[in-house]
Design goal:
Elements (H helix, E strand, L loop, with lengths): L5 H9 L3 E4 L11 E3 L1 E4 L2 E5 L7 H9 L1 E6 L2 E9 L3 H15 L4 H7 L2 H4 L2 E6 L10
Antiparallel strand pairs: 1-2, 1-5, 3-4, 4-7, 5-6, 6-7
Protein name: DUF2255 family protein
Pfam family, one: DUF2255
Organism: Jatrophihabitans endophyticus
Length: 134
Amino acid sequence: MSTWTATQLDGIDQAEELEVITLRHDGSPRRPVPIWVVRVGDDVIVRSYRGEGGGWYRHARDDGAGRVRVAGMDLAVTVAPVTDQEASEAIDAAYRAKYARYGDSYLKPMVAEAARAATLRLTPHVTTNYKEDK
């Protein structure tokens, strides 16, 4: 397991969103999906707006890995569900602070129970089996 560098954390923290890329069964990359991202301490967190029904979320959760593009970086990541209630409250606060300007129509679903149940912690992954985009 690896940790984020200060430069990566700063770039992610300042980014409005990142693109998540998961793999198909044949190993080819799926279409990038833009999603909101928050930083809580040194943790990088994403949630599915559609809860557990989000396709990118299901693929990333099931694979335990993915790729993200953010702040000019293209990074392999491992993903792990976040189920801790205390962490969920800090994550909710981070979403509210970062995305308040979008109002309740977008923000409210991101701090609702469905999104809380579809929360992933991203960690940089040093090696990858992902094919390069062509």
